[in-house]
Design brief:
With about 300 residues, the chain is mostly helical. Helix content is about 75%, strand content about 0%. Helix 4 packs across helix 11.
């Protein structure tokens, strides 16, 4: 199957969500309801299913994925801080610039793309990268960045609520029960819920897209996109190679690192005082650019 046939249907679902918004069948505010359903119902089942159904042996290098992935994200966060200071951004915008440059849409977009390009067995690597290298750090380190640059205080209760998203904690549960046979009614229920993740996530992403937030900030927005879509996957590729991560694990890890800026970064920015409008602008532009960047990444990875 060609890259176009594998990946572009995922983006068509996103444009479907955008079209539904334009037709006023759903509103941008409805994204919150869809996101709640995904985070607390369908996505945990999707992650559980990906790990539980993976019957092939796991290469030892897969344990390095969260550590190498997070290490490279931190490198980009530092680079974003330095570049943001050079742009002389105000502190809330600088906080948003750092968030948008480092944290990617590795769940809502990453899972569908990885599944379309490499199949079900590749999702275990995507889950480890998404939940442990990206999501959990976003909800902890990301909240600290947003709050500190905004001069706000990140309340422990709010941080705990974000960090306790069930998809993070379902990973050890799935690994624990993986050797056993779960009763079929339970697995069927999990499968039904998991199947809703991809269409709901992409429609939610389409609903959330808006070009209005990039006015007056075009250069910082496109710079954040370059850090996220180009710098992070490049350094992740070489870091993975240097640490002995190879094959499909390396490919999926690099592909996940090249996802556009995270929609959830907007949530963190909004809750903790960073410039939400700026982050939304980077999410919009990076997502549109990723329609070309993701297939290009797959072609380059295939060549290696």
């Amino acid at each position: 199957m060609s890259i176009a046939n594998s990946v572009f249907p995922v983006f068509l679902l996103m444009f479907l969500g955008y079209g539904i918004k334009k037709l006023r069948l759903l509103k941008q505010e409805d994204t919150g309801v869809l996101t709640t359903v995904i985070i607390y119902l369908t996505l945990p089942c999707f992650v559980f299913e990906a790990i539980y159904r993976h019957r092939a042996g796991l290469p030892p290098s897969i344990a390095k994925v969260p550590f190498v992935g997070l290490g490279m994200i931190i490198v980009v966060l530092i680079a974003a801080y330095i570049i943001g200071r050079m742009f002389k951004l105000d502190r809330p915008t600088l906080g948003g610039f750092i968030l948008a440059a480092g944290f990617g849409n590795t769940g809502f977009l990453g899972y569908p793309v990885v599944q379309a390009a490499f199949g079900q067995d590749a999702l275990i690597t995507a889950a480890l990268y998404d939940e442990l290298a990206m999501a959990f750090p976003l909800y902890t380190l990301g909240t600290f960045i947003a709050a500190s640059f905004a001069g706000a205080r990140a309340e422990a209760k709010s941080v705990l609520k974000l960090a306790s998203a069930p998809a993070v904690w379902v990973i050890p549960l799935a690994l624990l029960v993986r050797p056993y046979n779960i009763p079929e009614p339970v697995t069927k229920t999990i499968q039904y819920l998991a199947a809703g993740t991809v269409p709901l996530a992409m429609i939610s992403l389409g609903l959330s897209l808006s070009a209005r937030s990039i006015k007056g900030l075009a250069l910082p927005v496109f710079t954040a996109c370059a850090l996220k879509l180009a710098l992070l996957p490049v350094i992740t590729f070489y870091a993975a190679r240097a640490t002995g991560i190879a094959g499909q694990v390396q490919t999926v890890m690099v592909l996940e690192s090249g996802m556009p800026s995270a929609v959830m970064a907007c949530v963190v920015a909004s809750k903790f005082g960073a410039n939400e409008r700026f982050v939304a602008g980077v999410v919009f532009v990076s997502t549109i650019l990723s329609i070309a960047a993701i297939p290009l990444t797959l072609v380059i990875l295939g060549a290696h």
